[in-house]
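quick one, 509 residues, struct below
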Amino acid sequence: MKKEKVLEVNNLKISFRTPNGLVRAVREISFDLYKGETLAIVGESGSGKSVTNRAIMGILAGNGIIDDGSILYREQDLAKLSEANFHAIRGNKIGMIFQDPLSSLNPTMKIGKQITEAMLINGDRIKNKMVDMYHTEYYEYLNKKKELDLARKNAKTRIFEIQLDDTISKQDKKTQIASIKTELKVKLSEIKAEIPSFKKKYIEKKEEAKTIVKADVAQIKADEKVELQSLKSNLAEQKKLLETFTKDSEDYSNQLKNVNKVKEDIRNNRENFKRKLHVTKKEAYERAIEIMNEVGIPEPEKRFNQYPFQFSGGMRQRVVIAIALMADPEVLICDEPTTALDVTIQGQILNLIKNLKKQRDLSVIFITHDLGVVANVADRVAVMYAGKIVEYGTSEDIFYNPKHPYTWALLSSVPDLDTKEKLLSIPGTPPDMLYPPKGDAFADRNQFALKIDFEEQPPFFKISDNHYAATWLLHEDAPKVDMPVIVKDRIEKYKAQEKAFQQSKGAQA
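---
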């Protein structure tokens, strides 16, 4: 059966403008995310994994620039979306769990309010219905306007690079910058000429939607009035009948129950009609209690009115997960959600994320620097180093058949219960991405580096249909290099543990 592709990142390049030049944080990375799977992105701090996912969420820092590439979600390129368009996707379609739950929560606001806040703010059902009627024309208009900003930003970046390039003479700099400005002027005028037609379509569709929605609201209010009038008439009749009975009699008691039931029906009627117009506080509360139960927060009715400082670290992370789930997203990005937690709580949060993924058929991107965390969570793994994906495969490929020296180094540094020898550390530090290396970025720290590693970046070599690695060691002319003994031993141990686990499962079945 063909898997449904939810997210597709193609040749993504991201830089950050700094006083010293452009920091090349992400360099031409590509990956896919399928429905119901977990993709883990692993790498050291500064490898570009969090930057990639902030770009997917549309929350890059102000000096961040998407230089090239696309981020396709349901046929929309998130790299070119306007902020208004992103608002419809961020949280609603793509949710995110951040690293430190304490800094993600407002210490002065009760947990319940924080969980329900987004649902209430975005809960104007009439407005949402109207926007849905003209959203295609509106988003096309906004995206066309966004092209103006992207063109200006691109020109600004090119000029910035030229000004910092000491190999170009002053005169040549002036000439090149003038050429970019002329080019920009032409492009902006072309885009501006197209905007009025997009705006006209959007306004026409909006006016049409307003008329339809206005009629719908009038009908809802008319229906409410009729139904409410009927209930009030019934209440008057029940009260009149109540007056015919003697107080403290059984008939009086039974009739009083009827009166109270009609009053409850009136309250429910008002609540139901309000819900047709917008999300009510009662509705948001009910939804929050349901989600808090789902993420394993005990006594949710009591906890709803407590503050973040009254929760443990693990419980705070469950609250953050609850906030992310309130909008029922399709994709969940977990940015090192267990880093700030102790080991036993880490396991609980990982199991919770796994269970939620299965129950809700979520697609999950899991960011971490710890390969040990990935083992029982990921379906596929992308290993990142210096802004590039260096190895990409299934969880079994990465753990049982790693091919890149950086993956070997990461596996060598993961502790386990049987570790007796000193853990290996990776010598040196990652390169300064102000000046990206000419060849393989890992070459200076790689004991197996070849001469070509310092001269040319390796392409991806195919190991299997699902497994690729960017290392010159896989070239047909490269010398044969065996993986380190410690990695071989680890793989044998992993295989033995997996076999024992499967046998115990079989015995239980």
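The chain has a mean pLDDT of 89.
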